Amino acid sequence: MRLILLGPPGSGKGTQAQRVVDTVSVLHLSTGAMFRQAVAESNEVGLQVDPYLKRGELVPDDLVTAVVVNRIDQDDCDSGFLLDGFPRTMGQAEALGQFLEKSSKQLDGVLLSQVSDGEIVDRLSGRRVCTEPDCQKVFHIKYDPSQREGVCDGCGNRLIQREDDQQETVRNRLRIYHEETIPLIEYYRQRSLLKEFDGTGTVEQVGQRLLALIETK
Ligand code: AMP
User: Fold this and answer.
1) Is residue 68 lining ligand 1, measured as CB closer than 6 Å?
2) How far is the centre of ligand 1, averaged over its atoms, from the C-alpha of 32 (Å)?
3) How big is the CA angle at 61 (ends 59 and 64), to the nearest 5 degrees?
4) Rounded to an integer, what distance in angstroms lies between the CA atom of residue 168 and that of residue 85?
């Protein structure tokens, strides 16, 4: 199954994607996580994307698309993938479409999480992420707390607030979402790929709605 998880920054895509891949056998590909890992490793991609991540701005289309296309072309993606955080612009959606067409592959669905801007600000300010690059588990101090405050349940490393989860950067990321990513909703709706779900409520409730959508695919 080839799926895209679409939704505003902080709508819980990362958390939900982790749950989906525990249930359905697809690979979770988060461009944000790939970039944060690249920054932590200070590799060539990491050095290029670091300033964009810090400002909460989008990495240029050519660079993101090259990273994603290269990744989904690998053998372990043959059984499917769940893209989280990509595509985010029309240019990226078109580049992905062209790549899949060339490889005679098709998307099975685009799952849109619906959450209001007010709730996004609330969620992002409470979000905490694991500092271990190979783990990157996501928690929320109110909705999905770790068992020990500030410590990852998965690997025991320290949890932090991401620099781009601070208020001014969050507002900037939401503005960019409205300008660049919202047009994709119509793009995928016209291709009969769009499935919407209510992204509000507990992690458990949202997870059930999302899995129900995937299971009807
Ligand atoms: P995320 O964890 O998905 O919120 O991504 C964190 C940051 O990585 C974003 O604020 C962007 O700077 C960058 N990023 C991730 N995915 C993309 C994308 N598809 N296009 C451009 N920039 C991206």
Assistant:
1) no
2) 5
3) 65
4) 20
Which of 15, 53, 110 has most ligand 1 atoms within 8 Å of its beta carbon, as the pocket-test mutant? 53
Report d(CA 107, CA 33) in Å as an integer.
22
More confident residue, 132 or 203: 132
User: Tokens 């932090």 belong to which residue?
Assistant: 160
Q: Please give the Cα distance from 158 to 178 (Å, whole number).
A: 33
Contacts for 116 with CB less than 8 Å, ≥ 6 apart: 200
Q: Which domains does the chain have, with CATH numbers?
A: 2-115+166-215 (3.40.50.300)
Do 217 and 108 contact (CB within 8 A), yes or no?
yes
Query: In angstroms, rounded to a whole number, what is the distance separating the alpha carbons of residues 106 and 90?
Result: 18
pLDDT in tens, 93-145: 999 999 999 999 999 999 999 999 988 988 888 899 999 989 989 898 988 89
Separation CA 111–CA 18 (nearest Å): 15
Residue 195, SS3?
Answer: strand
Which residues are registered as beta bridge partners of 29? 83
SS3 11: coil
Taking each helix axis from N to C end, the angle separating 61-72 and 31-41, rounded to the nearest 10 degrees, works out to 100
- pLDDT at residue 122, as a whole number: 84
The pTM for the full model equals: 0.86
> How many Cα atoms are found within 13 Å in the side-chain-facing hemisphere of 135?
18
